[in-house]
Write a structure and sequence with these properties.
The complex is a heterodimer. Chain A contains no helices and twelve strands. Chain A is mainly beta. By secondary structure, chain B is an all-beta fold. Helices cover 0% and strands 50% of the residues of chain B. In chain B, the strands form two sheets. In chain B, strands 2, 4, 5, 6, 9, 10 and 11 form a seven-stranded mixed β-sheet that branches. Chain B has a four-stranded antiparallel β-sheet with strand order 1-3-8-7, with no helix packed on it. Classes of the chains: A mainly beta, B mainly beta. At the A-B interface, strand 6 of A face strand 4, strand 5, strand 9 and strand 10 of B.
Chain lengths: 118, 115
């Protein structure tokens, strides 16, 4: 069964410093990969997604993620963190076609809460 | 404004008292889904619907019911709530269930406490 691991429950980063959030997945083939952000009191918002092609994916709000097949990882990065980035971040995986093309079997990680210090 | 609207935002109830959490989207989306979010467990899917009158179980459907009589609405029903259903619930929708071209839109959540 597919699974997602986000090993860090909390991360604290100083404003202006770089950020990397880890995500490891377990799946027989290359899954579809997503990063979502949840700001306090809000629903989840898609940051970026990877299906195929270039392994470095650019997203919104200055975030990027790199898919590394050999490490089964899809880590999220940002070169300079802003106070407004404080939120909870979720990695998610879903099976590729032909299993299905939809969001029906999307599996979320347990989340990493990012705290930004002044 | 395109959005997914859940109501209520907060709900406190007692064990066994039936309740419904409503979800409505104004984007003419075919696909809708319910998740629950619990600390240390992330989001887990309860039920999903591919279109009107088409629903299916997710990973944690026990104790929940859904219906999809209209395209815009996808209510979550707890016939006899229990304390282990205390959780933060999210509704989500997408235009079509095609991850390559679409994305999930999430509501703002419903915090449910069952005493």
């Amino acid at each position: 069964a597919q699974s997602v691991t986000q090993p860090d429950i909390h991360i604290t980063v100083s404003e202006g410093a770089s950020l990397e959030l880890r995500c490891n997945y377990s799946y027989g083939a290359t899954p579809y990969l997503f990063w979502y952000v949840q700001s306090p009191g809000q629903g989840l918002q898609l940051l970026l997604k990877y299906f195929s092609g270039d392994t470095l994916v650019q997203g919104i709000k200055g975030f990027e993620a790199e898919f590394k097949r050999s490490q089964s990882s899809f880590n999220l990065r940002k070169p300079s963190v802003h106070w407004s980035d404080a939120a909870e971040y979720f990695c998610a995986v879903g099976p590729p076609p032909p299993v299905n093309t939809g969001f029906q079997k999307l599996v979320f990680g347990t989340g990493t809460r990012l705290l930004v210090s002044p | 404004e395109a959005q997914v609207t859940q109501n209520p935002r907060y709900l406190i109830t007692v064990t066994g008292k039936k309740l419904t959490v409503t979800c409505s989207q104004n984007m003419n989306h075919e696909y809708m889904s319910w998740y629950r979010q619990d600390p240390g467990l992330g989001l887990r899917q309860i039920y999903y619907s591919m279109n009107v009158e088409v629903t299916d179980k997710g990973d944690v459907p026990e104790g929940y019911k859904v219906s999809r009589k209209e395209k815009r609405n996808f209510p979550l029903i707890l016939e006899s709530p229990s304390p282990n259903q205390t959780s933060l619930y999210f509704c989500a929708s997408s235009l079509i269930a095609d991850r390559a071209n679409e994305k999930l839109f999430f509501g703002s959540g419903t915090q449910l406490s069952v005493l």
